[in-house]
Structure formats: C-alpha cells, structure tokens
C-alpha cells in the first residue's frame, strides 16, 4: 500500500508531502488544478518514462519519493533479493529528473536502472489512465488483457518465441531451396580462414605471456647489469648500504646507554636492516634466474610477428583474432546448414511441432479465461445502465499460427438483446465504450497482484445513476486493496472513504498546485461545488450532505 508521496518542483507543484490511507480515496478539484499531475509524479516514481517540461520552471531538478508497504505475498520480496536489494518492511522509490531531461532512480537508497524501478513499480501499483478504454479498440491490447488477466503471459511469451524460431527455420529452408545460401566460394574462403587461424593457435592468455617474456628477455642485459649494481650497493661493495647501516646501529646503541629515549630510533634502524637484508636476498634469487637466451628471444619475436601480421590482415587488434575465428566458424556452420534443404526441413518440422504443442495448450487455457472474463463483464454491464447488453470475447482461428498463437482475440458487444454482438471498435458509442472499459478494469483489478489501484478519470462519459454505481464498485474494491481515483463526478467522490481537494493558487507571481485532505464539512462544500457549479445553494449543500451521509453509512 502507498504510504507517503513526496514531490519537489514537478510541473506546477513546488513542494508536497502526502500521507495516504487505506480504502478508497478520491482526488477532486477544478479542471487544471493538478489532479492528474499527482498521478504523473507517482508514475515517474514507479518507473514511467520522463518527458520534457516536467521540471518546474526555473528549477534545476524535480524529485519524487514514494514509500510503499512491502507486500507480504507475491514475488516482490524474492525479486528484491534476486537483485541484491534491501527487502525491509517498507520500499522507498526515488526518482530525480534534471532540467535537461536526464533522470536517476533509487530503490531503498540503492541506485538502480529505470527497468528495475519499473519492474518493482508494476508489483506495487496498477495505474488505469483516463484514455485506457480507447486502447481497448486495438486487438493486441484485447489479447494482452485476456492473457494478463488469466496469468497466461509467460506461456504466451514462450509461444511467441517458438513461433519466431520456427519462422526463421522456414525462411532458411526456403532460401536453401532457392539456392540463395549455397555460395561455394564463400564456404571455401571461410574454410581457408578457419584453417589459417586454427594453425596460428592464438590465445589471449598465451599472447600476454609472450609479450611479458619478450619484454624481459629483450632487456635481459640491462636487468643483469642493474642487478649487479644494486647488489653491490646493498651489501657487496665497499660502501654498501648495509655496512653503513651497521655502523649507524652501533653508534645509536652507544648513545642509548646514555639516553633511553633513543630506543625507538634503534628499533627503526633494526627494522630497516631486516628489510634491506630481505631485499638483497630477493634480488639475488631474481638474478640467479636471469639469463641471456638469444634463441628464445628470436622465437618470441617471430611469434609476435606472426600474430601481428594476422591481426593486420583481418584489421583487428591481436586480441580480436579469437572473435574473428568464432564468427568464421559460426558463418561456415550456417552456410553448411543452409546448403542442405532436407536437414533444414527436418529442423523446421521439429520447431513447428514444438510451437503447435505449446500453442494448443495456450488456446485451451485462453478459451477458459475468455469465457469467464466475458461473463463477468456482461454481468457488470447490466448494473451500468446497459441492461440487455451482451459482451463476448471471440477467439478467431489462425490455421497457420502466428506469434500470438493459434487464434486472435476480439471483443464483441451488443447494446441490446435484439442485435448480435459485433466488434466493439465498430459499434460501441463513447459512453458505452467508457462503461465497458471501466467494467473490464474493475474486474481485472480484482485479480491483479498490485496492492494499490489508481484510476485517472476512468469515469469520463458517464453520469447520474451509473456514476453512483461506479462509485460503489470502487468502494468495494477499496475493501480489498488501496484505491485512488481522480474524478469529476460527485456520485463517485461521495463513495470515497477519504477525499483530497486539489486547487491552484498564486504565490509570488507563480501558479502552484496545493493539496489537502478534506474534513467532512469541506467534503460537503466540495461535493456541492461538483453538483452545483458556480452558485452553491443551501439545497445543493443539503443534497451533498445527504450523498455523503448515505455513503458513510455502514
């Protein structure tokens, strides 16, 4: 459940800190006051795409912070653990958008990618926009809605993947039959390249070792000379450091007999002597391993020449030769396969069989979900002043199959019993479409896993008795989860458990949005305004109080 929302410098909001309650809450106010702006801000915190103009004029950045209770059930806690993110009792989503359009996101204080923020947001809240019912006219939206409602999206995604694999093999087989992929010359060239690269035997680790050894051997004379000089200076020469250090230690030891404070100096000199002795023996061991090996140096130089020449030939850095060999092998294998139409036909048949098996399972489950959803929507429409209407979900067979499976989905509706259902895109009026969309959203939301449901003016195009029924539906949803609704209808707002008033005001020459939670007297005034318009009478107030009284009666 959404607990808090903090907004800074977003569009016409300078600073808002809002605490949310459970149940059904209504957000009301004059047109343009900023009701939808609040939901836009929340959408950004949930991972929606940022757009230009979202930062308040004259400010460097906008910031939105949303705090949710972490749901006990569902997969969000497991998802957070898989992402190595903290999974406390609350989840804080933070989004910052600068004036240049760049945005950053955090989950519980940890920087995350926008895709991660969006994935978490989808498990926390479900937003239904004010134009969502228009999207229902598109067949792909209708199909996604059925699959999502029935929990079929993973299976639908797998069916789409299998279809794409089958289609790719079909195209390869057709091309092979047409002779488009049988270039003998290209196969010969690739075979020669693969043989040449394999004979080179190049490896990145081996290449690093060759360069290191070459560096050492090519400077062996200088290293041997340097070792001798250093060893002489450390311990073997007349003026060796260790001999001078011994004399200094003896001198400090004599002084120590007269002043104990020099004890620390003596200890430091002793430590230095130990370090010098270790350095001397380490360098001696290194010198013993050094030798001049012209023959080995020549072999290394030849190896470096061979590798660099091959790299120049293929126009890559030496390390890129591994990728060249892998790509050549992959292309060669592809050409060999594509030159054998019969083998491709066998692979194609297996791919088609795999697709059909999964697609048939999807079809069976999709038919069950579609029937149940259509029945529930039809029942709901009867209470939304569409008595006698019929709503059906048709599954149109696709004999050859497609990425969507073995059928397409189409919503059908008939506004009266005497007419057969027809495609919703062709026959539904604006008001009917709004009611169908609202019925679908309410029904599918009951099965949604998100604990917070948000409706942005989904009641557009309805009024009167239907609006009151819509309010009751939203209130019923509020008994199961948190529901937020932006509305212009008093009948809907009166059903809310709590109500926020949103208005514009001018401060220091700037137009800003302000929000406050309404008391019962303030709700009466707001409902009266929504009922009566400019001039509010006592009769209007009485009607508003009556509506709220009925709504608040257990």
Main attributes?
554 residues, alpha/beta, 6-stranded antiparallel β-sheet, 6-stranded mixed β-sheet, 20 helices, 56% helix, flat
Any overview of this molecule?
The strands form three sheets. Strands 2-1-4-5-6-7 form a six-stranded antiparallel β-sheet, with helices on one face. It has a six-stranded mixed β-sheet with strand order 8-12-13-3-14-15. α7 packs antiparallel against α13, α10 (241-256) runs antiparallel to α11 and α14 (341-382) crosses α16. It is built from 20 helices and 15 strands. It is α/β, with parallel strands linked by helices and 554 residues long. It has helices at 35-45, 76-82, 114-122, 132-135, 139-149, 153-177, 184-200, 204-218, 220-236, 241-256, 263-289, 294-313, 321-338, 341-382, 424-427, 430-447, 464-478, 490-493, 520-532, 538-552; strands spanning 2-10, 13-19, 24-28, 61-69, 90-98, 103-107, 110-112, 125-128, 390-402, 405-414, 422-423, 452-456, 482-486, 498-507, 510-517. It is flat and about 115 Å long. The two termini are 23 Å apart.
Helix/strand layout:
Layout: E1 2-10, E2 13-19, E3 24-28, H1 35-45, E4 61-69, H2 76-82, E5 90-98, E6 103-107, E7 110-112, H3 114-122, E8 125-128, H4 132-135, H5 139-149, H6 153-177, H7 184-200, H8 204-218, H9 220-236, H10 241-256, H11 263-289, H12 294-313, H13 321-338, H14 341-382, E9 390-402, E10 405-414, E11 422-423, H15 424-427, H16 430-447, E12 452-456, H17 464-478, E13 482-486, H18 490-493, E14 498-507, E15 510-517, H19 520-532, H20 538-552
Parallel strand pairs: 3-13, 3-14, 8-12, 12-13
Antiparallel strand pairs: 1-2, 1-4, 4-5, 5-6, 6-7, 9-10, 10-11, 14-15
Helix pairs in contact: 6-14, 7-13, 8-12, 9-11, 10-11, 14-16, 16-17, 19-20
């Amino acid at each position: 459940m959404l607990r808090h929302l903090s907004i800074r410098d977003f569009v016409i909001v300078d600073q808002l800190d809002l605490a949310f309650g459970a149940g059904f809450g209504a957000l009301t106010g004059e047109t343009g006051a900023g009701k939808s702006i609040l939901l836009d801000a929340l959408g950004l915190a949930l991972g929606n795409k940022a757009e230009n103009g979202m930062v308040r004029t004259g400010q460097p950045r906008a910031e939105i912070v949303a705090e949710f209770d972490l749901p006990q059930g569902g997969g969000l806690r497991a998802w957070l653990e898989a992402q190595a993110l903290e999974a406390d009792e609350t989840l804080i989503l933070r989004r910052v958008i600068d004036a240049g359009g760049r945005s950053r996101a955090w989950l519980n204080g940890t920087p995350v990618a926008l895709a991660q923020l969006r994935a978490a947001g989808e498990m926390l809240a479900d937003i239904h926009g004010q134009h969502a019912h228009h999207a229902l006219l598109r067949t792909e939206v209708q199909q996604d809605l059925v699959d999502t409602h029935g929990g079929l999206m993973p299976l639908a995604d797998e069916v789409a993947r299998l279809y794409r694999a089958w289609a790719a093999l079909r195209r390869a087989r057709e091309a092979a039959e047409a002779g488009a992929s049988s270039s003998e010359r290209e196969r010969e060239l690739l075979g020669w390249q693969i043989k040449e690269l394999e004979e080179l035997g190049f490896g990145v680790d081996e290449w690093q070792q060759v360069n290191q050894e070459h560096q050492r051997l090519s400077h062996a004379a200088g290293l041997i000379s340097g070792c001798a000089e250093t060893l002489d200076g450390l311990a073997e020469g007349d003026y060796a450091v260790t001999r001078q250090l011994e004399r200094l230690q003896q001198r400090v030891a004599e002084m120590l007999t007269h002043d104990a404070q020099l004890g620390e100096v003596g200890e430091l000199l002793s430590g230095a002597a130990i370090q010098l002795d270790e350095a001397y023996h380490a360098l001696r061991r290194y010198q013993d391993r050094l030798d001049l090996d012209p023959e080995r140096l020549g072999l290394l130089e030849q190896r470096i020449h061979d590798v660099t020449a091959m790299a120049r030939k293929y126009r890559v850095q030496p390390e890129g030769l591994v990728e060249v060999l892998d790509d050549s092998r992959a292309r060669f294998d592809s050409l060999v396969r594509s030159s054998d139409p019969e083998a491709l036909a066998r692979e194609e048949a297996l791919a088609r069989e795999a697709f059909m098996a999964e697609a048939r399972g999807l079809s069976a489950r999709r038919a069950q979900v579609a029937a149940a959803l259509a029945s529930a929507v039809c029942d709901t429409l009867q209470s939304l002043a569409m008595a006698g209407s019929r709503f059906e979900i048709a599954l149109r067979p696709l004999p050859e199959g497609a990425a969507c499976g073995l059928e397409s989905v189409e919503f059908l509706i008939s506004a009266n019993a005497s007419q057969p259902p027809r495609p919703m895109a062709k026959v539904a009026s604006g008001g009917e479409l709004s009611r169908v969309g609202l019925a679908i959203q309410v029904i599918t939301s009951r099965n949604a896993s998100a604990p917070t449901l948000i409706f942005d003016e989904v009641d557009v195009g309805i009024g009167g008795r239907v609006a009151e029924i819509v309010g009751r539906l939203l209130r019923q949803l509020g008994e199961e989860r948190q529901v937020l609704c932006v509305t212009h209808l008093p009948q809907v707002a009166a059903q809310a458990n709590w109500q926020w008033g949103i208005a514009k005001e001018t401060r220091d020459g700037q137009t800003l949005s302000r929000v406050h939670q309404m008391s019962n007297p303030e709700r009466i005034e707001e409902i009266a305004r929504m009922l009566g318009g400019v001039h509010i009478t006592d009769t209007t107030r009485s009607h508003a109080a009556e509506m709220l009284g009925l709504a608040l009666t257990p």
